Amino acid sequence: MQSRILTIINEEGMHLRPAQTLADAAIQFESDIFLETEGGMEANLKSVLGIIALGLEKGAEVKLSADGPDEEKAADEIARLFESGFGE
Asked: Which positions fall inside the HPr domain (predicted)?
């Protein structure tokens, strides 16, 4: 299992466009990929609605977990998206 602590850097937090970008990226991997908030809420990254339901604002820290055959590649790609601000 791969895990990383990531921070939302987008001014508007996790709204529909970055959530869709995350889900589109996650779907490409076989691994199970989840985000968990500091408050213990969890979402499957392959679900746009699950991601949005976390209500992540700018500065929020989340734990990324990936488990499966391509977990390292999945975690690296998702972390890269967070670090780039999802292209915004």
From this structure: 1-88
